[in-house]
Write a structure and sequence with these properties.
single chain; 115 residues; mainly alpha; 4 helices; 0% strand
Length: 115
């Protein structure tokens, strides 16, 4: 299990990342820049491409935000660092790289092969 000091550090990192994602989502939702009144085909294509990218990025941010919220809840519940599938400890290196990981490497690999 992780030491209390490590948990506090991870919790602070997760909260900072959550705050950053929320700010990014808010900024993107306030971006109402649309195409010109009379756009040509190139401008229209660029506008649609930009909207597609923004939507994909927003979706990724929302998914990551959900994962962060789950990790913060696990910290509060005292279950952080345990794989939600096999209930074994997740290696510290994995949590360091991806602090909101909910699966150990083995279960993640199995999950990836199923999908």
């Amino acid at each position: 299990m992780l030491a209390i000091l490590e948990l506090e550090t991870i919790q602070q990192q997760l909260q900072a990342k959550r705050d950053q994602l929320l700010a990014d989502l808010e900024e993107n939702s306030n971006d109402n820049s649309g195409p010109n009144a009379n756009p040509d085909r190139t401008a229209l294509a660029q506008a649609y491409h930009s909207k597609d990218r923004q939507l994909a990025l927003r979706t990724m941010h929302q998914q990551t935000l959900g994962q962060i919220e789950r990790a913060l809840a696990q910290i509060e519940q005292g279950t952080y660092g345990l794989c939600v599938q096999c209930h074994q400890p997740i290696h510290a290196e994995r949590l360091e790289a991806l602090p909101y990981a909910t699966l150990c490497i083995t279960c993640q690999a199995e999950s990836s092969h199923k999908g």
